[in-house]
């Protein structure tokens, strides 16, 4: 997963593909907030907290991470022959992996850098011919025909790693949403064991075990999923159950796509 070649280690992911996900949590609630508050316009800065309480019941509860991101796996519309639309898929990955920012300060940065590095490798290939490469399968098929699946920086290799990373995140969401008693570090640990660990060497495993020690508490994690903490603190149960529902929806969407990718790789005798 974490490779040594320098081009993967660009700390800032390509902004055009990230679109708004990175800035969402900082800016979104401001314009989103007074969108529904016609008569409070002039108050929205000074009395933000005060008016928040009057409005969070209906709308602000919807402003968690999962409802703010623009591209969701469960919105992916497959093309013919189960073709996975390249651009939308990459944007879904890009958006959902910004959740790693809520995992901890810098501990998961190597993972994030790696994920966005792989997104960019596929994106570079896609941009060469957006019509021809409008599905992930078309990109991989082209590399198979050209015998380039094992070439340095191949999209085939990048997608293999990206699928594994999405699988890891899927397992985390699954463990986390299973019960109210789930513990962050346990969820991440179990997910890592089941998915990425088998592909990693000792060095990368060490990075992960280090990162797992700096995970936030469950409450802190929930708080990070919303721009205005009071939305969570005033409606804990409601907010949590809503996030759990959104996680379960994400899992369904993720499963659908990553199983197609996995089958496609198997059928073409590529490493999964």
Topology diagram in text:
Blueprint (H helix, E strand, L loop, with lengths): L14 H4 L2 H15 L12 H8 L9 H4 L17 H11 L12 H20 L7 H10 L9 H24 L5 H11 L7 H12 L4 H7 L4 H6 L1 H32 L5
Helix pairs in contact: 5-6, 6-8, 8-9, 8-13, 9-10
Question: Can you walk through the features of this model?
Answer:
With 272 residues, this protein is mainly alpha-helical. The protein contains 13 helices and no strands. Helix 8 (155-178) packs antiparallel against helix 13. Residues 1-59 have low confidence and may be disordered.
List keywords for this structure.
single chain; 272 residues; mainly alpha
Concise overview:
This protein has helices at residues 15-18, 21-35, 48-55, 65-68, 86-96, 109-128, 136-145, 155-178, 184-194, 202-213, 218-224, 229-234, 236-267.
The major beta sheet can be summarized as:
none
| Mean pLDDT score | 81
General shape:
globular
Strand content: under 5%
Distance between the termini: 13 Å
Could you tell me the radius of gyration in angstroms? Answer: 20 Å
How helical, in percent, are the residues? 55-70%
Strand-pairing-aware structural class: mainly alpha
Q: What is the string of SSEs from the N terminus onward?
A: HHHHHHHHHHHHH
How many separate helices? 13
Low-pLDDT stretches: 1-59
By DSSP, the count of extended strands is 0
